[in-house]
Amino acid sequence: MLAALLLAARLTVPLDSTVLLIRVLDVSDARVGGDAILITDAGAGRARHVLIDGGEHGATIVAGLTRLNVDTLAAVILSHPHADHYGGLGAVVTRFPVRAFVYGGTPRTAVTYRALLRAIDSLRIPVVTADTGVRRVTLVTGDDSVELRLLAPPPTCGALPGDAGGDAVNNCSVGVRLTRGGFVMLFPGDAEQAELGWWMLTEPSLLRADVLKGGHHGSSNATSAELLDAVQPRAVIISANGRQHPFASVLALLAARGIPTYCTADNGTVTVRVPRNGAWTITTEREGKCHARVVRN
Ligand SMILES: [Zn+2]
Q: Which of 107, 128, 150, 188 is the most interior residue, by most CB within 10 Å?
């Protein structure tokens, strides 16, 4: 009886209003890959959620968001139009009310991508096109302000052929820089050296971050010594499918610098907790060490 009462009491404890949670969700398996990152802030007394990318499969991401008690998404941000990032979003926008859809506006002829944009249009979800400069989105005002800065892709992305190759599309990613108090996390999408170099040139002060979401699933074309010099991360989280990602050279580079690294393929969902006061921490669903999937690159 007492146990039941204690359980009931625990269930009624209000949301921890002092903690921001950033979950790099484990949405990939040996067949499919992808990114899906859920940002949850309860600072205004009610959880507010932002989703960056939705993995490849709708059922996986919808089940994940449901399990985490997501009711509404304040924004869905699509880093770039590749299926391992937008494939699950059609199911997300159908299942959850979405207050804004943010993307880079890069042209893409893929049938499934056109269908997603049509669904967003027919659901009358407001669209923000982050195609120039740096835009600012404030999630909560006051003491618990969480600011997202959207780093636009290079201007040439607006004229990209609709059937452009994979690297060209990766290099048209919308980057996101999250700040809460003194904490900063950078999400570069799948941006490779070309776009990362352009951001280093145009927005160098916005790249430094405490935690880096490893670019392009831990590929060597997205994590270099130059980038690590610019970001100076104290931890790196890699969303990888465990098939061809992450690359051995990237893990070696991070290990040589002594940067703690977490991989969804080995650790499951990785959660960054950012309290209003005190140090941020990282916890993982499973214990494990990142394993390279591509050894020669
Ligand atoms: Zn990708």
A: 188
The residue segments making up the domain with residue 144 are: 16-284
> Domain tally for the chain?
1
Q: How far is the CA of 237 from the centre of ligand 1 (A)?
A: 14
Phi-psi region of 92 (alpha: psi -120 to 50; beta: other; left: phi over 0): alpha
Residue with tokens 């996101």: 176
Q: Give tens-digit pLDDT for 14-29.
A: 456 678 999 999 997 7
Span from the CA of 123 to the centroid of ligand 1 (angstroms): 26
- In-domain check, residue 192: yes
CA distance 163 to 125: 26
For ligand 1, the distance from its centroid to the CA atom of residue 241, given in whole angstroms, is 10
Question: Is 155 within the bounds of a domain?
Answer: yes
Give the environment of ion ligand 1: residues with CB less than 5 A: 84, 190
Q: What is the pTM of this model?
A: 0.92
